[in-house]
Design goal:
The complex is a heterodimer of chains A (about 120) and B (about 110).
Chain A (H helix, E strand, L loop, with lengths): L4 E3 L2 E4 L5 E6 L6 E8 L3 E9 L2 E4 L8 E7 L2 E6 L8 E8 L10 E2 L3 E5 L1
Chain B lengths: L2 E3 L4 E5 L4 E3 L2 E3 L5 E7 L5 E7 L5 E3 L5 E5 L4 E6 L8 E9 L5 E4 L3 E6 L1
Parallel strand pairs in B: 2-12
Antiparallel strand pairs in B: 1-4, 3-9, 5-6, 5-10, 7-8, 8-9, 10-11, 10-12
The chains are: A mainly beta (about 120), B mainly beta (about 110).
Chain lengths: ~120, ~110
């Protein structure tokens, strides 16, 4: 299996620009998670989808952030407009919730965002 | 409330020495626990997990962890570390009765001295 695929791996943009991060989960996994990791705040859950439906978006910082999962094989996280404090590594992870006693999240390699 | 505490932000050990990383949890029901490892520039990878049964759990890369209910702990151990073990280690509590959430510890960064 190819694993969770994220793009881009690195993004440098200027304040005010729109940023779109993309994720392809592992085929057959029915849950998808977006995390943000910074030195100051550690690993934060932004949003969690199950069967393409957002279940918990309480971690989304503010209206500038939005996430979609139009189908089982693709999700986006959009920041518009971006700000320097959004600089972080954004991880996508997927999980097969049909296998209840595994619970294992499979992470992508992350998208490192720098907002100047 | 549920929580996971990793008391050590950084730990430095010499190559070949033994390692123990601490993890304490707070949860009223049966805990399901994980250890993940994050190598520099990479995503997180599962090292091992505890669901039930034997309280000593074996994982990948020669790691093991022991679940101690009386101490609310799930400490990670390795008898002899290698330079390639330098990474950040995260303990997590899996809430099967609460939307299958994962509660993450803050992580412990392992530094290996040559």
């Amino acid at each position: 299996d190819a694993g969770v695929i994220q793009s881009p791996r690195h993004e440098v943009t200027e304040m005010g620009q729109e940023v779109t991060l993309r994720c392809k989960p592992i085929s057959g996994h029915n849950s998808l998670f977006w995390y943000r990791q910074t030195m100051m705040r550690g690993l934060e859950l932004l949003i969690y989808f199950n069967n393409n439906v957002p279940i918990d978006d309480s971690g989304m910082p503010e209206d500038r952030f939005s996430a979609k999962m139009p189908n089982a094989s693709f999700s986006t996280l959009k920041i518009q407009p971006s700000e320097p404090r959004d600089s972080a590594v954004y991880f996508c992870a997927s999980r097969n919730d049909r296998a209840l006693y595994t619970g294992e999240l499979f992470f992508g390699e992350g998208s490192r965002l720098t907002v100047l | 409330a549920q929580s996971v505490t990793q008391p050590d932000i950084h730990i430095t050990v010499s190559e070949g020495a033994s390692l123990e990383l601490r993890c304490n949890y707070s949860y009223g029901a049966t805990p399901y626990l994980f250890w993940y490892v994050q190598s520099p520039g990479q995503g997180l990878q599962l090292l091992l997990k505890y669901f039930s049964g034997d309280t000593l759990v074996q994982g990948i890369k020669g790691f093991e962890a022991e679940f101690k209910r009386s101490q609310s702990s799930f400490n990670l151990r390795k008898p002899s570390v290698h330079w390639s073990d330098a990474a950040e280690y995260f303990c997590a509590l899996y809430l099967m009765d609460s939307n299958y959430q994962l509660i993450w510890g803050a992580g412990t960064k392992l530094i290996i001295k040559p």
